[in-house]
Structure formats: C-alpha cells, structure tokens
Amino acid sequence: MGLALGAGAHMQELRRTKSGPFREDEMMVTLQDLKDTYVEWKAKE
Predict the structure, then answer these.
(1) How far is CA 15 from the centre of its chain?
(2) In this predicted model, what pLDDT tens digit does every residue of 1-29 receive, in sequence order?
(3) Local structure of residue 27 (DSSP, 8 states)
(4) In 1-45, where does DSSP find H-type helix?
(5) Are 2 and 10 in contact (CB under 8 A)?
(6) Count of structural domains, the chain
(7) What is the rounded CA–CA span in Å between residue 42 and residue 39?
(8) What is the Cα–Cα distance from 39 to 45, expressed in whole angstroms?
(9) Among 5, 22, 24, which residue's Cα sits nearest to residue 14?
(10) Chain-centre distance of CA 31, in angstroms?
C-alpha cells in the first residue's frame, strides 16, 4: 500500500468490518475460536 501511495509505509493490520449483510459487531467469531470449538466438540465424541 505504501508503494502504491508513493510513501514509505507498511500495514500492520487489515480488518474486514463488514461483508454483505454481516458486520463485525454481530455474532462474528474468529477462525481460532471456530477451530477451538471444533476441537473441543471432537474430543467429546
């Protein structure tokens, strides 16, 4: 992005806050949370 703007810069974080009808503050989970829940569920079987 810094190169495209012609400035020395770097990006520390890129975050999607909305995708279609879904917003970040509405019932969203991280991939890590999803994985942890799946691992816990599989361990109970």
Answers:
(1) 6
(2) 778 888 887 778 888 888 888 888 887 88
(3) S
(4) 2-5, 31-44
(5) yes
(6) 1
(7) 5
(8) 10
(9) 24
(10) 7
The letter for the amino acid at 11 is M
Nearest alpha-carbon partner for 43 in 29, 24, 35, 20:
35
Range of the domain at 32: 2-44
How many CA atoms within 13 Å lie on the side-chain side of 12?
A: 0
CB atoms within 10 A of CB 32: 8
All residues at 6 or more sequence positions from 29 whose CB lies less than 8 Å from its CB, including other chains: 37
Radius of gyration of the chain (CA): 17
Q: Are 33 and 41 in contact (CB under 8 A)?
A: no
This prediction has a pTM of 0.46
Would you state the structure tokens that stand for residue 13, as one six-digit string? 């974080």
Place of tokens 């999607």: 16
